[in-house]
Write a structure and sequence with these properties.
The chain has 128 residues and is mainly α. The chain has 6 helices and no strands. The chain folds into 2 domains: 68 residues; 59 residues, no CATH class. 80% of the residues lie in helices and 0% in strands. Helix 1 packs across helix 2.
Length: 128
């Protein structure tokens, strides 16, 4: 039953992604459909249209497998190493700095969300 639930949650996330892609293609927006899908999911979670628990198992599985999703991008970069000849150090520096910024912002966001979640749980008398 756990695997069926997990599969359905991943399928629902995929549907949200596809809705974003459809919106992007119909409106001819310069924003990628995957980003539109994430904005839709964020809005649905923020306005409590959907509950976080509805996606918890599927998203946990996807997060555990996240490093595998970066392998094609890494291979793609290696395939185009000649683009880095002229301004390679600048490009690598920008990539490292932007990665560091993303890591720091993600860390602060997850810490604040976890603190908020812990505070709400304590107010309700629950233990995490």
């Amino acid at each position: 039953m756990k695997y069926v639930k997990m599969s359905l949650q991943i399928f629902c996330l995929y549907i949200i992604y596809r809705i974003g892609v459809i919106i992007q293609s119909l409106a001819d927006l310069p924003i990628p459909g995957s980003i539109i899908g994430m904005i839709l999911l964020f809005g649905a979670l923020y306005f409590k249209v959907v509950k976080r628990e509805w996606f918890s198992l599927g998203s946990t599985l996807l997060l555990k497998q996240l490093p595998l999703f970066f392998i094609p991008a890494t291979v793609g970069v290696i395939e185009y190493l000649d683009l880095f000849k002229g301004s390679g150090l600048i490009t690598i520096g920008i990539a490292l700095i932007s990665t560091l910024v993303v890591m720091i912002v993600s860390s602060f966001m997850s810490d604040s969300l976890l603190a908020k979640d812990t505070e709400v749980s304590k107010d309700k008398g629950l233990q995490l």
